[in-house]
Write a sequence for this structure.
């Protein structure tokens, strides 16, 4: 799961929508994708719930980095759908539920509030 964590932390998130492809320079999409692959290669040692997290982070790590907001929204949507499936399978797992909530936040970076109201997730 350490590789999953490195992939997760280096990937696009609500507070950081911009990435670079340079390994070792945080946040690095190259590092995110490398560690997502490594996590995938070791997922047989993970619990079933952890496997869902690994599979979802692999969906989020794409190379090259999406060049348009539309492309990034598609990646974010696919990731959110993967996390939704995980949350349905493990509805009492606080880690999965937290990551699912974060995946929904990524759908509307810096735009969760509309007219003083919370934006509903798709």
């Amino acid at each position: 799961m350490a590789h999953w964590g490195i992939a997760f932390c280096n990937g696009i998130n609500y507070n950081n929508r911009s990435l670079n492809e340079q390994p070792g320079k945080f946040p690095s999409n190259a590092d995110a994708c490398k560690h997502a692959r490594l996590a995938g290669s070791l997922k047989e040692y993970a619990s079933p719930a952890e496997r869902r997290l690994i599979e979802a982070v692999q969906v989020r790590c794409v190379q090259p980095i999406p060049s348009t907001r539309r492309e990034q929204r598609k990646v974010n949507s696919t990731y959110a759908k993967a996390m939704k499936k995980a949350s349905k399978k493990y509805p009492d797992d606080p880690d999965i539920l937290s990551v699912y909530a974060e995946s929904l936040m990524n759908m509307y970076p810096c735009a969760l509030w509309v007219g003083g109201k919370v934006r509903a997730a798709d």
In short: The mean pLDDT is 87.
